């Protein structure tokens, strides 16, 4: 059973989609050193990227055990593990946890899809949550 609120994960998915859509559009095609150019671009984007700022705030506001579950959802959704291994995945995420969880997560360009898949394996759907009215 998830300890992290699925609605929170859905918001992280939305923010990751927004961030990565902007990020991909700004990658340089040529330059002196492509790695340096990309790094400069990425660092410049984070400062004024409201999607990233909100993403980071939400992740940092989560308890460490909830952050670890978000990382475990990433790994599950990416196909690194099966749903039956959930307890082991969470244990591994706990062992590898750092305060830089937000950066670790956002560094995965397929984060939104992988979190969505992990959430769906737990029986939750962001589409269902978005149709529920007040």
The largest sheet, given as strand count, sense and whether it forms a barrel, is: none
Mean pLDDT across every amino acid position: 84
Number of helices: 8
Rg, rounded, reads: 16 Å
Principal-axes geometry comes out as globular
Termini gap: 25 Å
Q: What is the percentage of strand-forming residues?
A: under 5%
Would you tell me the structural class of the helices and strands?
mainly alpha
Helix percent reads over 70%
Low-confidence stretches: 25-45
Q: What's the number of domains?
A: 1
Number of strands: 0
Order of helices and strands: HHHHHHHH
Describe this structure in words.
It contains 8 helices and no strands. The two termini are 25 Å apart. Helix content is 71%, strand content 0%. The longest helix has 20 residues, at 6-25. It is globular and about 40 Å long. The protein has one domain.
Short description:
Helices cover 71% and strands 0% of the residues.
SSE blueprint:
Elements: H1 6-25, H2 34-48, H3 50-61, H4 64-78, H5 86-95, H6 101-106, H7 111-121, H8 126-131
Helix pairs in contact: 1-3, 1-7, 4-5, 4-7
What attributes characterize this protein structure?
134 residues; 0% strand; globular
């Amino acid at each position: 059973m998830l300890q992290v609120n699925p609605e929170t994960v859905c918001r992280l998915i939305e923010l990751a989609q927004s961030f990565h859509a902007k990020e991909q559009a700004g990658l340089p095609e040529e330059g002196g050193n492509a790695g340096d150019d990309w790094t400069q671009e990425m660092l410049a984007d984070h400062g004024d990227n409201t999607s990233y700022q909100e993403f980071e705030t939400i992740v940092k506001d989560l308890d460490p055990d909830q952050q670890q579950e978000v990382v475990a959802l990433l790994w599950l959704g990416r196909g690194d593990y099966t749903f039956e291994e959930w307890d082991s995945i969470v244990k591994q995420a706990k062992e590898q946890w750092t305060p830089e969880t937000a950066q670790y997560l956002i560094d995965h360009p397929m984060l939104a899809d992988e979190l969505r898949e992990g959430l769906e394996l737990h029986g939750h759907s962001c589409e269902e949550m978005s149709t529920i009215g007040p």
